[in-house]
Amino acid sequence: MDFSPPSVHRGLEHDPQWYRRAVFYEVMVRAFYDADGDGVGDIPGLISKLDYLEWLGIDALWLPPFYSSPLRDGGYDVADFRQVLPEFGTIDDFGELVSQAHARNMRIVMDLPLNHTSVEHAWFVSSRSDPQGPYGDYYVWSDTDKIREQIRVIFTDTEESNWAFDSVRRQFYFHRFFSHQPDLNYHNPKVHDEIHDIARFWLDMGVDGFRLDAVPYLYESDEGSGESEPETHEFLERFRAFIDAEFPGRVLIAEANQWPREVAAYLGTEEKPQCHMAFDFPIMPRIFYALRSQQTASLNAVLKETTEVPSGAAWGVFLRNHDELTLEMVTEEERQALYGWYAYDPRMRVNVGIRRRLAPLLDNSRSELQLAHALLLSLAGSPFLYYGDEIGMGDNIWLEDRDSSRTPMQWTPDRNAGFSSADAGKLFLPVVQSLVYNYQSANVETQLAQQASLLHWVRTMVHVRKNHPVFGVGSMTVVPTDSPSALAFIRDMPASECRPGERPETVLCVYSFSHNPLAVSLTLPEEFRANKVTDVFGGSTFPAPSEQGHITLALPPQSFYWLSLAGVKASVT
Ligand code: BGC
Fold first, then answer.
1. CB of 353 closer than 6 angstroms to any ligand 1 atom
2. Which protein residue's CA is at the shortest distance from atom 3 of ligand 1?
3. How far apart are CA 71 and CA 388, in angstroms?
4. What SS3 state is found at 474?
5. Average pLDDT for runs of 10 along the chain of length 573
6. Ligand 1 geometric centre to CA of 76 (Å)
7. Which of 72, 81, 227, 311 is the most buried (most CB within 10 A)?
């Protein structure tokens, strides 16, 4: 496999709002490529695959935690925020990754699990044994577990309470996630100083930003829900001010699994911004709902709700990630339907969600995979791909918890899918060998050799998106249609968003979730009345809209159009 880069690397382009146009790729260091043959992926391994990621068109990597950790929660249980887990490499390796990525104009965003630590973190070890000592107040301690009982448990499969009893300090400590992950006490200003110092440590090494893990849960109170409490937002305003003052151009991404208006709050306001980006949790399950129900009402409604954000802010949109496909942000009726369609085997469920990968969820249907990806790449917001989904990798529901979809990347049909030269039994998780998703057919090398493969298709789509910056920075207007199975919206990039050499652009995106052919009629809003409609991919001309802006399109089952609207009145000012 030859992904030889251009002989001269471009280096990092200057653009303080780079994240608005970026295509992100979530990659777990542990699972991507094992350079030293110990059965575990590592940072040098990831460096050796940067050419592949550049070829795919990736602008930024999101790396889940690679800190020193007992790995009882995939590394989200941090034991030391300033150390790289030795099996993943060294701090110097990480420095090399940053400079190699930057040479390719690729950014590195790392996870910052700032809500909690591992019980093995030195702060906790000290806090439990020395209540009056310097770390005594770093965690949330209580003599009773009968307070704050209104705060819901998130990991419902493993935890009964948010409190755990510590036999050393003989008090309870609060934990929103696993009981081996005590919550930090944000009422203690010293904790803020620590988090700032940790952030500064990595920013000084050149990282381009942080995904703020589990950010709604920083503060809890006796009466509140422990989610999105006002002080959490105040903390974020200060954290953002620190980034803007000392590290402009670096990005903060909120992981807030909340309802639309609450997620939007993590972006803050024009005067008091918080995060630059927030993951759009409500949209994702509704895409899966539309695929099976053939109904777009719920998706339409949520798209209309989430479009208002302060200037410079951006959504992060995704189909899958390293966690379960969370079903927290849907109605009970939708949740039950989604479980029925996508998690018919109880093994497929975890907590309030589904622990499967994209391709198996969509039964490896090429039209569904294409529809879902096209939507991902055209919605308002920056798309986040999950490693392996570009080749339709499968999962392994016989593995524990969310490890089902964290298995080694499949590079070749050779031993260990080309991921590692170790003895197969030594791999951190086995490669997928199921009938449909066996690594011998689902791998990068095989798909490279086939021009019609999913990998080539995804790559082409990523590049088309990047050639049309309207998908990154354009506004989004949902357009009503006459079909309950269709979704249509207009992306519009005004001159004010254009970089030198770019031109304003308007694109109409139309999706059919119907399992049968569908005729879709819609009326272009007055400000977007065009006199010429052309296909973004092949450039062919479509019938012009009527004088009233009326268009009827015929769509094959589960398909889409991206149509360029020329001669639009309002956008070309
Ligand atoms: C991460 C999970 C992790 C949890 C607790 C989440 O938001 O994405 O993987 O288990 O935080 O740290």
1. no
2. 76
3. 22
4. coil
5. 74 95 98 98 98 98 98 98 98 98 98 98 98 98 97 95 98 98 98 98 98 98 96 98 97 94 93 97 97 97 80 96 96 97 97 97 98 98 98 98 98 98 98 98 98 98 98 96 98 96 97 98 95 96 95 98 87 45
6. 6
7. 81
